[in-house]
Amino acid sequence: MKRLLYAVVVFSIFIACKEERKEIIEEVPVKTDSIATHVEPVKNLPFSWEAANIYFLLTDRFNNGTTENDLNYDRTEPTGPLRGFMGGDIQGITQKIEEGYFSDLGINAIWFTPVVEQVHGSTDEGTGNTYAYHGYWTKDWTALDPNFGTRKDLEKMVKAAHKHGIRVLMDVVLNHTGPVTDKDEAWPEEWIRTSPTCDFTSYKTTVECTLVENLPDVRTESNEAVELPDALLAKWKEEGRLSQELDELQLFFERTGYPRAPRYYIIKWLTDYVNHLGIDGFRVDTVKHVNENAWSELYKEASFAFENWKKMHPDKVLDDQPFYMLGEVYNYGISNGREFDFKDKKVDYFAHGFKSLINFELKEDAKKDYESIFRKYDKILRSQLNGKSVVNYLTSHDDGHPYDIERKDPIRAANILMLTPGASQIYYGDETARSLTVTGTEDTPVQGDASLRSFMNWEELDSLPKTKEIFEHWKKLGTFRRKHLAVGAGIHKRLGKSPYVFSRSYSEGDIKDKVVIGLDLPKGKKSLWVKGFFGDGTKLYDTYSDTEVVVQNGKVILENDYNIALLEHKE
Q1: Model pTM?
Q2: What average pLDDT does the chain have?
Q3: Which pLDDT belongs to residue 571?
Q4: Which residues pair with 283 in a beta bridge?
Q5: Where are the alpha helices (DSSP H) in 44-169?
């Protein structure tokens, strides 16, 4: 059998559009041997971070590209259920990119959990021993953890993603190091604090404190110069790169004029990945636990590195988009607008390098009717957040109260996530209804966030008809959304109440896009009101049912067993 892969020919168009530019990606199908089929490639495909289709995955839990790196640093201690490494790696992500999995799903950005070197030992957080499989317990920002892969693996992954027109978001941590274990000592006191623990009652008790016990907090507010830890210097020396690392740091501090304070070292180490690999953006962890000026500095240096990489690799540049930063301000909701309230202080993180913040509100809004959700988001994004955006999600790696935790209605979840204005974040397995209520070895629920982080359910996707049906629905919505900027970044308007029909229209420079969508439609013959949006005689195409229609008397008639319609201009 045959599989379609995409050889992506990228060229830029220069269209002024507020803070960033849109680009066109032309995709040409190339056939290679495989067992699955792909959606047809879309030509002249525009992109905007405001309407991005982001796929978020735990590197260790997505796909095991090679078993050769599954065990490192003698990480063999027994752990609590789902709290040890399970083999997923960077090579596994690359495999799925090259197979076309993300392209088929309409993904145009991949966010993967941190892959820098993690603490070697385990620690008990009250749920059994845990290793740093999640990537948020850094030991060395300058190296990759061999459990995840090598620098070469990461370079190949970025190149593969770009070849398919997919941006790469690297998850970064500036707030804390990894915990102290029997194999990992604490960083020096001038670098970190080990108390007090945050109580989140004020700005200071959210920022200058440890998130939890035994998670050393980097002194990101300090401007005092510090020496590099002896343990880190010894590690670099043993690895044969001490001189190189020291020389690079010298050049960085000479160029920037920054004091050698803790945050500036880490900013240098993080932006190196942008400078060397062309990473398109950062998803920034624990944003509200760091002084906001640090994020402005991170954005400044990442932008410098990104533009430098573009100059050094002009033939590999996707477009002239600026560097992108997405912030995790825990419990920020779109209704907060530009500011997050610490009770004694309000902070506008959008003014400190962030184009978007993760929106923790949609999982609650999702319980409302479609029109209430869409109208609310359209209004806020066009007023308080004009020129900025949010990234919507329904499930994630650390939200123990997601929408539809039992996966009772993955179809409606797809409709809400993929059709709500703003950018969308699919959490790995949303599209396959991967279980979020895993049981442990004694048939009891896995405790805490580990239950949200089971290995990707590839076997179910390959074998269960119901899972395949769910996946097909997500694919249709995702590819439609990816093709049409109007879905995520366009103006929303209800056209019909019963059946529910709405339009989205987008106009920016030379890019103009219009679509009509119907939800909760009756099965069989159905009439969709489009008067005032598409004129009589207009030829339309319903991508969901693969049907061509013509507007007559202000409406289109469809006859099928689907309760959804995705209408676009017939090309």
Answers
A1: 0.92
A2: 92
A3: 77
A4: 171, 326
A5: 59-62, 90-99, 101-104, 151-163
